[in-house]
Amino acid sequence: MREKLNAFFKYVFEEELLDEIAQLGIYKEVKKGELLIDVDQRIEGIPLLLSGAIKVLREDKNGDEMVLYFLERGDTCAGSFANALSHRKCGVRGIAEKDSEVVLLPIDKIDSWMVRYKSWRDFIINSYDDRLNEIFETIDALAFMKMNQRLYKYLTDKVQVMRDTYINTTHQDIAYDLHTSRVVVSRLLKELESEGKIKVMRNKIEVLKF
DNA sequence: ACATTAAGTGATT
DNA sequence: AATCACTTAATGT
């Protein structure tokens, strides 16, 4: 556990803090497609992402959903931090986009770490800033971008997060993530293909330009 | 061979 | 850009 932490956090956190995390954190593997957190679920701990990728979605009462952003290794869901402290419920759903490893940090500790470790404070504040900026990006995409641009952004983001130019997914699943219909996705994908940006296959898309 | 699921298409709003 | 209604293609059993 300590080695896994060192891999990404060696120069992020102080030694003692790393020791505490290794000692108190609960290591958890989340397989692709599994739920890490769900809407209205009580936060059991702050997740530190060691490897993999988590897709974070917003869901409304009708069950309609939309992707907000992806978390990568070294990220944490800062929103869960405030929620955890105030014992509020979570407003988003987190699903593993691929097999991932997380460390769940106990709620009572993260508070005291704030005053004891500068690196922890910085980490949390940075995390907030990162998440906020990502949400701004998605708001911009929603408000100002046409569906074809949004689709392309989605694909290139996914390439980034998955570190693979091949995306295994169906048109329908993309439609759910962008909150549109499958027919539209199919047509726009074909458009992007004719522009030479991607190549579409059954259950698979290759992103050529990104 | 048949059923199921993914993807393509034309027309309509 | 969404929806409908339908076709075609790929895949599993």
What does this entry look like structurally?
The chain has helices spanning 2-9, 15-24, 78-86, 107-116, 118-144, 147-162, 171-178, 182-194, and strands at 26-30, 35-37, 46-59, 65-72, 92-105, 166-167, 198-201, 204-207. The protein has 210 residues and is an alpha+beta fold. Strands 1, 2, 3, 4 and 5 form a five-stranded antiparallel β-sheet that branches. Helix 6 (147-162) packs across helix 8 and helix 7 crosses helix 8 (182-194). The longest helix is centred in the middle third of the chain and has 27 residues, at 118-144. The model has no long low-confidence stretch (mean pLDDT 91). It binds a DNA duplex (13 and 13 nucleotides) through helix 8.
Sketch the major β-sheet: 5 strands, antiparallel
Q: Which band does the percent of strand residues land in?
A: 25-35%
How many β-strands, per DSSP? Answer: 8
Which structural class is indicated by helix and strand composition? alpha+beta
Which segments are poorly predicted (pLDDT under 50) over 5 or more consecutive residues?
none
Spatial separation of the terminal alpha carbons: 35 Å
Continuous helix count: 8
- Helical residue percent band: 40-55%
Shape: elongated
Cα-atom Rg, whole angstroms? 18 Å
The average pLDDT value, as a whole number, equals 91
Order of helices and strands: HHEEEEHEHHHEHHEE
